[in-house]
Every structure is written in C-alpha cells, then in structure tokens.
Design brief:
Layout lengths: L3 E7 L2 E7 L6 E4 L12 E8 L5 E14 L2 E10 L4
Parallel strand pairs: 3-6
Antiparallel strand pairs: 1-2, 1-5, 4-5, 5-6
Length: 84
C-alpha cells in the first residue's frame, strides 16, 4: 500500500505530510527546516529504528505548529539527517 498524504500548514508554510497512525514519534528531515520558519532548534543526538530496522540518525528536535482543516496543534518533532 502507498503512504497517505494530506496537505498541512507547518509554521505557516503549506506542505504535504505523510499520515502514519502507527508511529510513536514525529520525524522531519533536516532539509525540511530550511523550507519553514522555525524557532528554538534543540541539539539532541539520538537514534530511532525504522519499520524496516534501519537506523534513523536524529540531530535534534523542534516544536512545530500544525494546521489542517481549521484545526491547530503543536507537536515536538525529531529532526533526522537521513530520513527518506
């Protein structure tokens, strides 16, 4: 099956997002940070394992404001260097 994408507004910038209801964490690619307004990047080294058991290198975390269909929420997202 293919991933499900929805259009969301992240820190006042529109982007497609993959919906993953089975994920315990929110992860964004380091390159995505260059495309959005953001504050308070927190350097924090850690690693996650992906569903196919590969390592995801986390360099920090950032709070994101997410808006979709009239709803707004804030999420703490890990920032990865090697996210597909």
């Amino acid at each position: 099956s293919s991933p499900i994408y929805i259009n969301v507004q992240v820190n006042n910038t529109r982007h497609p997002a993959i919906v993953d209801t089975g994920s315990a964490v929110t992860i964004i690619n380091q390159q995505f940070l260059t495309k959005i307004n953001h504050r308070k990047f927190i350097n924090k080294q850690k690693s996650h394992q992906s569903a196919n058991n590969t390592s995801i290198n986390i360099i920090g975390e950032i709070e994101l404001e997410i808006k979709t269909q009239g709803y707004k929420t804030f999420v703490l997202a890990d920032v990865a260097t090697n996210l597909v």
